[in-house]
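Hi R.,

Here's the input for the guanosine-5'-monophosphate complex you asked about:
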Amino acid sequence: MTVKGSLVVVSGFSGVGKGSVMKSLISRYEGYALSVSATTREPRPGEVEGREYFFISRDEFLEMIENDELVEYASYCDNYYGTPRRFVTQKLEQGQDVLLEIEIQGALKIKKQFPEALLIFIMPPSVDELMNRLLSRGTESEEAICKRIERAVEEAGGIEDYDYIYINDRIDDCADRMNELIRAQRNRTSRNSRFIEEIRQQISHYKSEYSTNNSEQES
Ligand code: 5GP
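And here is the predicted structure with guanosine-5'-monophosphate in place:
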């Protein structure tokens, strides 16, 4: 029996290391599918089309919205980001756990559409550490960094909308802890209705056979 996969939303402040935690999770554990988003932002050095993102123009993005090809989308620091629908639907049907690394507006839209989605917010070990990571990345202009810090302040206000927080102290440890949580979702009663119903019917059947046999013996 294939249980449908879990939809897992992972958010966190810019620079917290969400991407590294996701990489650790998918490279060391089976059964995960990481959704690749579409974005209108420019690729950073080293980013590859179709691996980190599908880099598209604003017009192409608007067309995807128009054609209902995105499960959710949001604007973040002057660019659009969105999750392509087809990949998510296919992988969930195949029983894979689908990871969406997205920001908070998108996370809330997912929660509305998929109430069973698991929302995880990755926290830095400390704010000093976060700022170090964000500033030492060296890929953003000062203006872009300022916008990302402003955005972090907004996101900090919404953390309680998530189901769990995990601290990214060490990448692999954080991924291990998240893996346990995600895998436990497979045991949710709501995800196992068919199996529960089968056991229920078998017990009822057993009960009626047992009471028939007993009453025959008594008479
Ligand atoms: P970055 O430019 O650093 O790659 O991403 C900026 C922010 O956009 C991050 O918080 C990232 O999680 C978020 N993001 C990436 N893809 C998506 C998406 O498809 N939808 C939404 N809502 N946010 C996304």
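One thing worth noting: The chain has a mean pLDDT of 94.

Cheers,
M.
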